[in-house]
Amino acid sequence: MNYEKIYNQIVNRAENRILECYTKHHIIPRCIGGSDDKQNLVSLTAREHFMCHRLLVQIYPNSNKLKFALWAMCNMKSKRQSRYVPSSRVYESIKIEVIKLMS
């Protein structure tokens, strides 16, 4: 499966629309050299944001920071934004990856 192609499709669609913003997403994540510049940010829905982070873990499988970011998205609470709640199967697969990293 071409994860990068899917990721780019989501980002490209987000660049060309006006959205009541759930959150700003770094197209190139900061942990792999992305900046806070306006051209590196897009507005995504909660579901799109989760999907993009899941895809980034597939695209960059050696980036532990991206894995922890995905794990945080599943567990951290925030008053200013809602969270996308993954299925139990997806949550379990993410949890297993983080447990491997921590052991």
Describe the model:
There is one protein chain. It contains four helices and two strands. It has helices at 3-15, 46-59, 64-75, 88-102, and strands spanning 23-26, 41-44. A two-stranded antiparallel sheet has the order 1-2. Helix 2 (46-59) packs antiparallel against helix 3 (64-75). It is globular and about 40 Å long.
The total strand number stands at 2
For the largest beta-sheet, the strand count, sense and barrel status come to: 2 strands, antiparallel
Q: pLDDT below 50 for ≥5 consecutive residues: which ranges?
A: none
In percent, how helical is the residue content?
40-55%
Strand order of the largest sheet: 1-2
Put simply, the count of helices is 4
- Structural class by SSE content: mainly alpha
Give the CA-CA distance, first to last residue: 29 Å
One letter per element, helices H and strands E, the order comes to HEEHHH
What key phrases describe this protein's structure?
mainly alpha; two-stranded antiparallel sheet; 2 strands; 103 residues
